[in-house]
């Protein structure tokens, strides 16, 4: 109740409340008692008066002396509070009456008046009625109270009725109440005065203390308290004064320290300001140096890569010619050294892009499984040369259709697997892909590369992800490299919202891992399905435990009945038992490794499989593929697949074994084996679609040089017609074509393919922005290639999407040595060496490509000018794209660059109108380069 009240209020309350409470209680108690006493006193006096009148009225009634009775009644009225008197005879007749008329006639209203005293108390009066008796002989007892009991000796004479007024008594009551109230109020006022004086005496010193504390709180440390009091308050006062004195001393000391510190800080700030100016200048110099370094690295890397690509390309051409073994050895050394140098330059270029913040990631549909398998396929020869087992393990709950940058993903994986191969001398390298988290249509994928190599110490692990640092920094190290691979991988993983880590122990191998967080593709890729694969019986033998687990993962996807065995003898026994039970296995899948499966065992398995109506698939390393293929040359019932085992490669091999079952049991093996040989080693049939005759001719020539059968068409409509007539293994589709473009053509082909086998379609584009590449894949294309393309790219793409092996045909000495650069000039307008390289080393084809470009160049120039004047941007972009595509395969670097710039600006201007301001300057450059090339052609024709 008093929790939030001040001390003064509490003192008043404690002083007033008890006193007021006691005064009120006692005043009310004694007032009520006095009022009751007044009522009792009136009643007793009235009764006494009546009792006194009875003996006197007895004598008058006996003598029937009315005068005497009248005088008696009149004298009775003189007594206090008597209002009126009435005497009644024994017959209840009034005898005499004195005073005013009674307010209420009690006896007259009664039939039988009472024989004893009757008292009636009303608001204003008291009525007392009493009978009058006498004795016949002796009337000695005048006690009216004893006469209340009548005996046979007493005689009834009548009644006396007296009315008493209560007015005087009520007045006395009011006087009593008034006196009590005044007394209580006087007591309360006196108490208030005393409480107020007491409160002032207590609170005034406290208020002084409070005011002094407030001044002290405001910083007035000179304040002192002197309230001239005693007791506890005096003690409190002394304590506060002592505390303030101590605070004042501390404040003065602190002030001195602050002044000294401020002076020191000011000197320090001046020093820091000077240092900041120096650091800012140094930072600007460092940034400028870093920018110059990054530009230098980027420019030099580009400049070095251009001639280096020429070295690699012409080395490949020389390797395909007739050279001596020593020359071939020299050329192979040149090729490997150039490729290593190119890899180093690519790392430096990527690192400079990362430092400059200019490395951008694509966001396009990608297949996680295919990306991993592609990396392992490329790196498999290096691993197999060291007899290492490469094992890809992609768990079944891991989504494979994602949206991301497949090139950068493969770059990270290539770095990690290459390092694992470098630092592992025996054992295996396991690549695992697993689902870490899935939320809001995004998944976090963890990919780890675990090897059984030399391992890393804690100190080496701390230095791993620093630029230009390596685990082995000794002068006797035998592992090369720039030390940038892991740094680049770390930055790329972070750009993909992931991270990179390592777990290793010296001498016990290492496990490098990285995570990426990417969206899931809305439209998963269409998966080939052959119902005949279901419930087919497969027996599988793989010595390596993890490799066997990986193969089982793949086979489960095909809904096959798989039996696994653990040594060749068990495999032979199971094959024999199956033949005996007349339920032979359809396919025996056997992994070859020199340490546990030699060629003699393969020969025995070939015989056992042939006798038991079972087809044999041998899984071999790249360095043993040739020897096993020689072993299988005359065997139509077996097939060799290169490890590591890839999904598409195994899928196609199994489907070609099982898909068709001939009606004649005797011809089953020969028929299926023929299908296999046709499928795996046959000439691929490829459809090439391009509206530019020069481009179409070059692509066809390159594909034919790889041993492919090519059907070439120049429009999307013709391409659709050809897909209805023939079954193609692969389609190379130009993107921009008049009428029906490549995207529309692809959609039409995909609509017709519903429920049928899907044909891989590869987009060919001279120039594509990142967003356009994403649209290509979303439109139904499986991959894309940027012009100019070369034989190595074509060979890799054909193998990736068809599983068919193609190889360049060996050229003759005359073909390679007869090259002459009759079209070369010193101005650089025409670079015939570059044209020959782009034409796959064929001078006659390069000359044809240039002639075809020159033949229509004047018309192309006029058409571009006309479209530019008409501001027909769509048609202008299409025409520039056509010319750009033609220059991609000719040695005209200046015109090619001008077309590239013009096309880039026109594409950017589609979404940003401000970019069209750059079109004019790009147009001038394009026309100028066209005029220079036409002028060069006229001069060349004149000299001819």
Automatic annotation (TrEMBL):
Catalytic activity: ATP + protein L-histidine = ADP + protein N-phospho-L-histidine
Subcellular location: Cell inner membrane
Residue span, HPt domain: 842-937
Residues bearing the modification 4-aspartylphosphate: 734
Modified residues (Phosphohistidine): 881
SUPFAM superfamilies xrefs: ATPase domain of HSP90 chaperone/DNA topoisomerase II/histidine kinase, CheY-like, HAMP domain-like, Histidine-containing phosphotransfer domain, HPT domain, Homodimeric domain of signal transducing histidine kinase
One Pfam family here: HAMP
Membrane protein topology class: Multi-pass membrane protein
Residues of the Histidine kinase domain: 299-520
Domain HAMP, residue spans: 200-252
Regions crossing the membrane: 12-35, 176-200
Classification via Gene3D superfamilies: 1.10.287.130, 3.40.50.2300, 6.10.340.10, Histidine kinase-like ATPase, C-terminal domain, HPT domain
PROSITE patterns recorded: HAMP (PS50885), HIS_KIN (PS50109), HPT (PS50894), RESPONSE_REGULATORY (PS50110)
Principal subcellular localisation of the protein: membrane
UniProt KW keywords: ATP-binding, Cell inner membrane, Cell membrane, Coiled coil, Kinase, Membrane, Nucleotide-binding, Phosphoprotein, Transferase, Transmembrane, Transmembrane helix, Two-component regulatory system
UniProt protein name: histidine kinase
Gene field: barA
């Amino acid at each position: 109740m008093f929790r939030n009240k001040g001390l003064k209020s509490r003192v008043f309350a404690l002083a007033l409340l008890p006193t007021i409470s006691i005064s009120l209680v006692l005043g009310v108690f004694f007032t009520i008692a006095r009022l009751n006493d007044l009522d009792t006193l009136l009643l007793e006096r009235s009764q006494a008066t009546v009792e006194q009148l009875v003996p006197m009225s007895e004598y008058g009634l006996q003598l029937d002396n009315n005068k005497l009775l009248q005088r008696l009644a009149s004298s009775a009225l003189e007594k206090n509070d008597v209002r009126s008197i009435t005497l009644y005879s024994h017959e209840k007749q009034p005898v005499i009456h004195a005073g005013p008329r009674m307010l209420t006639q009690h006896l007259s209203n009664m039939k039988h008046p009472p024989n004893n005293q009757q008292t009636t108390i009303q608001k204003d009066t008291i009525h007392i009625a009493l009978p009058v008796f006498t004795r016949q002989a002796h009337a000695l007892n005048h006690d009216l109270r004893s006469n209340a009991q009548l005996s046979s000796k007493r005689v009834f004479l009548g009644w006396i009725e007296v009315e008493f007024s209560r007015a005087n008594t009520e007045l006395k009551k009011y006087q009593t109440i008034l006196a009590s109230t005044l007394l209580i109020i006087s007591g309360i006022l006196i108490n208030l005065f005393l409480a107020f004086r007491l409160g002032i005496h207590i609170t005034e010193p406290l208020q002084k203390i409070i005011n002094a504390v407030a001044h002290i709180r405001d910083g007035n440390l000179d304040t002192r308290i002197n309230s001239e009091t005693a007791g506890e308050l005096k003690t409190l006062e002394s304590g506060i004064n002592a505390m303030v004195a101590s605070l004042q001393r501390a404040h003065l000391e602190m002030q001195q320290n602050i002044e000294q510190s401020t002076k020191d800080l000011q000197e320090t700030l001046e020093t820091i300001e000077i240092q900041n100016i120096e650091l800012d200048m140094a930072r600007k110099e460092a940034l400028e140096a870093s920018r110059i370094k990054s530009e230098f690295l980027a420019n030099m890397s580009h400049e070095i890569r251009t001639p280096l690509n020429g070295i690699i390309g012409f080395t490949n051409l020389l390797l395909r010619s007739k050279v001596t073994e020593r020359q071939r050895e020299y050329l192979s050394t040149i090729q490997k050294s150039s490729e290593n140098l190119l890899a180093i330059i690519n790392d430096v270029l990527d690192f400079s892009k990362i430092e400059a913040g200019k490395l951008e990631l694509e966001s396009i549909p990608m297949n996680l499984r295919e990306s991993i398998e592609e990396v392992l396929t490329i790196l498999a020869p290096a691993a197999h040369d060291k007899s290492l087992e490469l094992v890809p393990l992609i768990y079944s709950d891991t989504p494979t259709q994602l949206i991301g940058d497949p090139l950068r993903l493969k770059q990270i994986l290539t770095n990690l697997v290459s390092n694992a191969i470098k630092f592992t001398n025996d054992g295996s390298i396991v690549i695992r892909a697993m689902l870490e988290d899935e939320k809001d249509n995004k998944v976090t994928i963890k990919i780890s590369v675990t090897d059984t190599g030399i391992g890393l110490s804690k100190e080496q692990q701390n230095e791993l992800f620093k630029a230009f640092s390596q685990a082995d920094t000794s002068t006797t190290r035998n592992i090369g490299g720039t030390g940038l691979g892991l740094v680049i991988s770390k930055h790329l993983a972070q750009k993909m919202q992931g991270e990179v880590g390592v777990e290793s122990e010296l001498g016990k191998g290492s496990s490098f891992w990285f995570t990426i967080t990417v969206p899931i593709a809305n439209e998963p890729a269409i998966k080939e399905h052959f119902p005949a694969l279901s419930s087919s019986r497969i027996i599988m033998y793989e010595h390596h435990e993890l490799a066997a687990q990986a193969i089982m993962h793949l086979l489960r996807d095909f809904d096959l009945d798989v039996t696994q065995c653990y040594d060749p003898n068990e495999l032979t026994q199971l094959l024999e038992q199956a033949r005996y039970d007349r339920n032979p296995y359809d396919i025996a899948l056997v992994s070859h490794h020199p340490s546990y499966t030699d060629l003699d065992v393969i020969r025995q398995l070939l015989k056992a499989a042939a006798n038991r109506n079972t087809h044999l698939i041998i899984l071999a390393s790249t360095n043993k593929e040739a020897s096993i293929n020689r072993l299988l040359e005359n065997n139509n019932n077996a097939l060799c697949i290169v490890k590591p085992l890839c999904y598409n490669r195994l899928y196609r091999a199994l489907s070609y074994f099982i898909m068709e079952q001939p009606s004649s049991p005797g011809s089953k093996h020969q028929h299926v084996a023929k299908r296999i040989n046709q499928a795996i080693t046959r000439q691929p049939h490829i459809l090439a679609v391009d509206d530019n005759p020069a481009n179409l001719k070059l692509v066809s020539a390159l594909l034919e040089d790889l041993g492919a059968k090519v059907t070439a068409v120049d429009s999307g409509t013709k391409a659709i017609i050809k897909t209805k007539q023939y079954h193609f293994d692969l389609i190379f589709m130009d993107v921009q074509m008049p009428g029906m473009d490549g995207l529309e053509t692809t959609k039409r082909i995909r609509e017709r393919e519903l429920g049928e086998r899907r044909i891989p379609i590869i987009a060919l584009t001279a120039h594509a922005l990142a967003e356009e590449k994403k649209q290509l894949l979303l439109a139904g294309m499986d991959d894309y290639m940027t012009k100019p393309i070369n034989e190595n790219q074509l060979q890799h793409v054909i193998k990736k999407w068809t599983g068919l092996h193609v190889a360049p045909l060996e050229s003759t000495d005359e073909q390679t040595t007869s090259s002459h650069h009759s079209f070369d000039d010193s101005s650089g307008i025409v670079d015939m060496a570059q044209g020959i390289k782009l034409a796959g080393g064929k001078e006659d084809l390069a000359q044809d490509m240039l002639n075809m470009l020159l033949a229509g160049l004047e018309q192309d120039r006029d058409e571009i000018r006309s479209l530019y004047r008409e501001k027909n941007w769509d048609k202008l972009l299409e025409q520039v794209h056509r010319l750009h595509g033609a220059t991609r395969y000719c040695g005209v670097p200046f015109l090619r660059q001008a077309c590239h710039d013009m096309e880039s600006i026109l594409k950017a201007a589609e979404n940003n109108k401000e970019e069209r301001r750059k079109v004019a300057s790009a147009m001038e450059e394009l026309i100028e380069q066209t005029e220079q090339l036409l002028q060069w052609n006229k001069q060349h024709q004149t000299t001819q």
